[in-house]
Write a structure and sequence with these properties.
Number of strands: 6
Strand content: 5-15%
Protein name: 2,3-diketo-5-methylthio-1-phosphopentane phosphatase
Number of helices: 9
Radius of gyration: 22 Å
Distance between the termini: 35 Å
Bound molecules: magnesium ion
Pfam families: Hydrolase
Keywords: Amino-acid biosynthesis, Hydrolase, Magnesium, Metal-binding, Methionine biosynthesis
Helix content: 40-55%
Number of domains: 2
GO molecular function: acireductone synthase activity; magnesium ion binding
Length: 318
Amino acid sequence: MASPVPPVSQVSGCRACCVPGCASSQLRRRRSLKAAAGLPAAGTSIPRPRQRLDGRRRLRASPASATGPPQLSSIRSVVLDIEGTTSPISFVTDVLFPYARDNVRKHLDATYGSDETNDDIAMLRAQVEQDLSEGITGVVPVPPDEAGKDPVIDALVANVEAMIKADRKITSLKQLQGHVWRTGFESEEIKGVVFDDVPPALQKWHASGIKTYIYSSGSREAQRLIFGNTTYGDLRKYLCGFFDTTVGTKREARSYYEIWQSVGVDRPSQILFLTDVYQEAAAAKAAGLEVLISIRPGNAPLPENHGFQTITTFADIL
Ligand SMILES: [Mg+2]
């Protein structure tokens, strides 16, 4: 069954005013003049927390060089990225993505008119319309339902192929991919692949009372399929929950704040986040989580002086 997708709040403060000569624009002009003269602008020497319109504190990524080694003794929960952390990137790029690309037409054709697929198509239509308005290349307009099943599916397949090729991390694509993969997992055409050290670590953490969660840009349904059908069997019994981009993207600190609120520990520093991507690590650190970066075969290189502690296996980190 498709997971409900709550809207992700994008509320932010007003940064610019359209009214010429207003107090705000005059202040900006005075600041820019001072900056041009090499003088500090009024108010800029006193750091103050940015306030959002909804009253929530804005979380911003900070340079990782300011971070120290992770304090692991107080960890009560682990949040795991999948691609490049629990599983080889090649499993995603060489198995999952091609399976979805090669089977999306068959899936849409077989399930056209079902509630689930109607929901998937509605989300894709909305994404395509947004992409067209933003001038994204390779986007194909989706004809209305009245045009008939085949033209609609042709357009959807063209868009999905372009989205997969561009490796876009968008909820509409991930949701549909999850539904295509479900067929593959159920028929055992595909199996979830995890590194050898992952199952024993999950088992050990579970036995010691540490709660483990997954946070991936893949849909929660896809995550459950991967961990429920691995070459080591069903690993979901060691997992307490799954997060996807409905809590926010993985490079936003706010997403990790939301995860902390859901995980049920008193402090964000009681959560250890493992990922292979520096920007995700920096965002999680900015939200107060402890972070380790996973170095696995085939992962992309990290920036120099990234400042995070790295691991090559889950064995013995907790
Ligand atoms: Mg990753």
